[in-house]
Each structure stands twice: as structure tokens, then as C-alpha cells.
Amino acid sequence: MASELDESDFIDSEFQAAQKAASASPALNRPPRPPNREELDSKVGATQQRLLELKRAQESLERERTALEETRRRQAEFEKGREEMLESLTRGLGLLEEAEFAARRDAEQMSKTLEAFREALGKVQNIHQESWTVDNYQVELTRALTVIENARMEWNSARLKWPLLAGTPPTAPSGPTVTGKSPASNPSEQSFLQLCKWGLALTWPLALIALAALVIFLIIEFGR
């Protein structure tokens, strides 16, 4: 039975193969060697090149960031300016349209006052006292007084409406809503005493005319 054992049974073929492979390539089992100077110089140069590339990329990103921030600032300035001008121009348009309407209304009223002045002036100028006679003296006098008082009423009314006629320079309007009239042209803003003065200024010529007519009537009656 011992003769049946072969010598090859006690040999590890795998171990022998590993020994042969180790002896055939001894560099594979050698530990890595440190880099030499040339390799270090090459790695330093590559690292510096990489740093330069990263620096150029950073500078490019910084320029892009600066440009984006400038664009954002200009966009915000545009939006703010647009809203501001829309609000200002819309408000200014409304105020100027209101002021234009008030100015046109005042111009129309002034035109009417001018026309009334021309008419009253013509009537006063047409009073020719030298043509009066004894027979028509009282009648012509009454008619002349009526013309004079009507002209005076027109004048007083215009003075209340236009301060320039009273020698008061027109005040500069504080805003477009001011129509150019003095505060006296608005009776609602005056006191009761001022309103009474206005009423007396407007009605006393009529009372004077009525009194003159009464006196003339009494003279005619007693003269018969």
C-alpha cells in the first residue's frame, strides 16, 4: 500500500507556481519608490497650471457676477423709475387738466366781464347832458342815474370777482386747483359780516335809484 504513494503527492504545485512567479518578476513585490526631482518638478508645474486655470475661471466668474449685479441694479432702477414717472405723470396730467379747465372757465368769465364793461362804457358815454331841456330834464336825469348805477353795479361785481380791478395784485396759485380768483370770490369762505357788506354794496344802488324816482315823482305831483 505504501508503494502506491507517489512522490508528487507531497508537493504543493500552487506554492511552487507562486515561487516561480515571484522569482520571474521581482519588481512586482518591490514597494513604490518616492518620486524623483523631475517627477516633482513636473507635478509642481502641472499644479501651478491648474491653479492658473482655476484663477482665470474665478476671474471670469467674478466678471460675470459683476455684470449680473450691474444688470440687476439697472433693472431695479428702471422699474423704480418707471413706477415713479407713471405716478408723477398721471398725477401731473390730472392736475394740469383741472387747471386748464379752471383757466378756460376764468377766461370765459373775464370775456363776459369785458363785454359787460364795453356795454356799460358805451351807455355812459352816450349820456349827453347838453341835450337835456327843461321839459325832459327829470326824465333824462333819472335815466342817466339808472345808467350810472347799473355801471357801478357792474364795476363793483367785477371788483369782487377780479382782485386786479381793486388794485390788489393777483396772488400766485399755490397749486393747479387754484382758479386765479381771490378768496373773496367764494362767499362760502367769508364771514357773515363780509356777506352783509357785499349785499349792501350790490343793493344800495337800487335803493338809491328807487329813492331818486320817488323824489322825482313827488316833485312832479306837487308841481301840478
Walk me through the structure.
The chain has 224 residues and is mainly α. It has a domain at 113-223. It has four helices and no strands. Residues 172-190 have low confidence and may be disordered.
- Kindly report how far apart the N and C termini lie: 197 Å
Q: Tally of extended strands? A: 0
Strand content: under 5%
Determine the number of helices (DSSP H or I, runs of at least 4 residues). Answer: 4
| CA gyration radius, whole angstroms | 57 Å
- Major beta sheet summary: none
Q: What's the shape?
A: rod-shaped
The secondary-structure element order is HHHH
Give the helix proportion (percent range): over 70%
Task: Summarize the helices and strands and which ones pair or pack.
Blueprint: H1 13-24, H2 37-125, H3 137-161, H4 192-223
Helix pairs in contact: 2-3, 3-4
List keywords for this structure.
single chain; 224 residues; mainly alpha
